[in-house]
Automatic annotation (TrEMBL):
Gene Ontology cellular-component annotations: plasma membrane; receptor complex
Superkingdom per UniProt: Eukaryota
Topology in the lipid bilayer: Single-pass type I membrane protein
Any single biological process term in GO: cellular response to growth factor stimulus
Segments passing through the bilayer: none
Signal peptide range in chain numbering: none
Reaction catalysis annotation: L-threonyl-[receptor-protein] + ATP = O-phospho-L-threonyl-[receptor-protein] + ADP + H(+); L-seryl-[receptor-protein] + ATP = O-phospho-L-seryl-[receptor-protein] + ADP + H(+)
Name under which the protein is recorded: Serine/threonine-protein kinase receptor
Amino acid sequence: MTSEARNTTFVIECCTEDFCNKDLKPPLHPSNNEVSSNGDDSTWVTWKMALTIAVPICAICVVVMAIYHIHMTKKRPARHFPDDSLEAPDRPILGGVTIRDMLEMTTSGSGSGLPLLVQRSIARQIQLVETIGKGRFGEVWRGRWRGENVAVKIFSSREERSWFREAEIYQTVMLRHDNILGFIAADNKDNGTWTQLWLITDYHEKGSLFDYLNRSTVDTNGMIRMALSIATGLAHLHMEIVGTQGKPAIAHRDLKSKNILVKTNGTCAIGDLGLAARHDVITDTVDIQLNNRVGTKRYMAPEVLEETINMNHFDSFKRADVYALGLILWEIARRCNVGGIHDEYQLPFYDLVPSDPTIEEMRKVVCIDRQRPSIPNRWQSIEALQVMSKVMKECWYHNAAARLTALRIKKSLANYGAIDDLK
């Protein structure tokens, strides 16, 4: 008779024969640890399967949402950048005043632009209206700020150095002048897809000098007024103002008709200072921002094309500006309408180089062949055009040291204008 007693850890069996336990094969029940281990394995397999299914589904959802967001952004571009948290507190500070009022209140004595907080407040409240121009740097928009038109130059992110440099130059102490494009604010803005770099300036509805001359002619008074205003603006840039609130001398380095704006009164304002160089009078060094931009090849002076310009001598850059000014005066003079006779608008060297000339092509024409824009014979019979011809010839001498200064050009044109007014 066999009796058996069991518990969870051992088994006892009794018998009455010899060696009766030789072939015992008692059933072994699984321990609690084994059961627990099998349970854990089962749970992990379940989680692993769930993750394997869920992760790809989530990834697909994220990709679909991203594609949808990009599609909607392109379909309905964000033109408004409201920021209620900034706009509300600024209303008591800026309420009831125009940009001109603020500039007069905050820049008297410095002429270096608005405080940074005010600049940001204005930038956050601007509504973009329409595109008015495009360039290698980005786009120019007409914007509205409390009923006023402003120009918003939006730089692409790869042009951050140009944006920073131009904003820095515009905020130079004592730079503000009637014939320099009026700077209002600079800010970087996130439109939800990428960061935009904004430069906000005065808006001039007549557009650039290039655009204006393409569609309009000028009389002799208008020609002298335009030329004098550009020379005055350039002379102010080139001038060093000594004193506690002094201004360093600045060279433009990319002067051309597309970078000059025409105001409603027929005068002009010089803009686009992204390539400008400053003279540090204390160390007698030239402050030039290193970036990938170069000046416009068509307007490059001979010494720039030949790479013989002395980069350590600031006057070299001023003389290169004067060369470009001479070409701009030629563009204006061609559109002077006297007795119904005028020339069609053309860029300098239009008959000698292609529309987008290379450095080598310009070097051959300007430096080797010593060519300059042609001056019609009829200009010599009209006093105003004769004066302009003389000035422009003295601007584009091959020898940079022989060229007139911007201040001398300003005085020559001002003297002619004064004499003409007395007639």
